[in-house]
């Protein structure tokens, strides 16, 4: 006979969440890899066309990141009771919405419509965060969105500055990089305070 395992709903719920989140993120990564792997470039494409395509892809990635910050921050405002997390979330809404609107203008000037919703990976993270509450939500929001997403955004903006041939997009990245780095530092400070 197998002995009964004592019930611990909090621990069990967290274990289920973590398993779910890992699965969602694994599929998100696989989806991103698949979409990148299926893009093909015809042989003999001119360098200028490659540069324009690269600029569109980077603008799309930036738009997804900006929108994800805004959506996640709105979720944080709904769920958190922590005044510091609320303040951080409101600042993310204000600053990332402004950055997204600037990116939309840049896209219009290049006859490119930036995405109006987040990408699959960001949707997966938001879905996982919606299942959380209380201090556990606050910590995961700060770690997943505040730290991890801003770290990826810093990397993207730096890559854009180094590799893009589009001067306007490079200028956008130069304006946004210090803002995103400040957000990352703020999130790291909040994370240390929550431990």
Q: Which fold name fills CATH's third level, the topology? A: Ferritin
Question: Quick one: biggest sheet?
Answer: none
The average pLDDT is 84
Shape: elongated
Radius of gyration: 19 Å
The CATH superfamily appears as Ferritin, core subunit, four-helix bundle
User: Helicity, in percent?
Assistant: over 70%
What is the CATH level 1 assignment?
A: Mainly Alpha
| Name of the CATH architecture | Up-down Bundle
- Please count the helical segments: 6
Termini Cα gap: 41 Å
Strand content: under 5%
Tally the beta strands: 0
- Provide the domain count: 1
Structural class: mainly alpha
Task: Report a brief summary of the structure.
The chain is an all-alpha fold. The protein is built from six helices and no strands.
Spell out the blueprint of helices and strands:
Elements: H1 9-38, H2 47-79, H3 83-109, H4 120-130, H5 134-163, H6 167-194
Short descriptors:
195 residues; mainly alpha; Ferritin; elongated; disordered N terminus
Give a verbal description of the structure.
- The chain starts with 8 loop residues before the first helix and ends with a helix.
- By secondary structure, it is mostly helical.
- The chain has one domain (54-194): Ferritin, core subunit, four-helix bundle (Ferritin, Up-down Bundle), CATH 1.20.1260.10.
- Helix content is 82%, strand content 0%.
- The protein has helices at residues 9-38, 47-79, 83-109, 120-130, 134-163, 167-194.
- It is elongated, with a radius of gyration of 19 Å.
